[in-house]
């Protein structure tokens, strides 16, 4: 594929505690909400977190909301608006399209099948799906290569959204495909075929890998083959319900059923003013990025995953075996099996994922010991403008978002509870 898209519902800028998850009241005010029953958060400064959240809003984000957890307690806050026309505020408990964070759920489901002996990580995908990935390609590409994006299979999105194919040449592009596809129903195999027909982006197993959503659509077909049910149903029963997530689901239609924000897409200045795409048929992403969730549920899921309660510790170790992958922003990231790693100097190692779909962006990061984590959801995507060479330019939102994550994950270096405000 000719274009290199920054963020396309994937990694880069484009992918729990024990509390009962309930929807928060419709207010943009910050609240200290315990996972159990407390009035403060160990090692977290609520005032500084609220200020950092507000800074992202002031930098140009219409609305965002987050949950920060530390030592079993949680802080939740929101800033800005869910609807630019009405001024309706965002709230911490809103549902959100979380994009490629769904890939972590898919990877966990595949590892469960590895544990049951139904799938081998280093077996060729052609063993399971010979008609879908036939011939030499099916013999050379393994399940692991699909999970860690080293298959060499290219991205399908430029073919599904042809008006964006000239990227990064904005004068030659239009948002027509985004509007044309709003209610279009794609099938996974239709999208997979687009990717498989395109020129390969590398040889199977080559390093660095190249991120492609096509890989996870194939994994969805693998799950259906070995479980006898759709990937969405299997993940719902064996990952989402196993984790006790009450507000996480795969959509059945173009509308989100429950309190949620509008979702504004800017596409690097091509869409000005940004357009709301909160109503959208998510079949264009399939199982790998269509998930709807809340920041509470995401924090809970990643905490349970790292605690060995979704997959066995040996499977988690496989997920955390990272290698270099070129993201769709052109940056090199350290990616494992549905997880990637974030190193913050002087603070620690964090595991998680980020994701975006049209108009929405979400990130979740959790410290390796599970004691510090953040999930943050935003209702504007691809806010950067492009320079003459087609590179996204840094925006004040980027700096403010980095400061928020630093405050949430590092803050006061986990000061004792008595020192927390």
- Return residue spans where pLDDT drops below 50 for at least 5 consecutive residues: 1-41, 413-421
Sheet with the most strands, sense and barrel status? 7 strands, antiparallel
Estimated radius of gyration = 20 Å
- Any idea what the shape is? globular
CATH class: Alpha Beta
Estimated structural class: alpha+beta
Strand order of the largest sheet: 1-3-2-14-13-12-11
Number of strands: 15
What's the oligomerization state?
single chain
User: Order of SSEs, N→C?
Assistant: EHEEEHHHHHHEHHEEEHHEEEEEEEH
Specify the CATH homologous superfamily: DD-peptidase/beta-lactamase superfamily
InterPro entries: AmpC-like (IPR050491), Beta-lactam-related (IPR001466), Beta-lactam/transpept-like (IPR012338)
Organism: Nonomuraea wenchangensis
Keywords: Carboxypeptidase, Hydrolase, Protease, Signal
Pfam families: Beta-lactamase (PF00144)
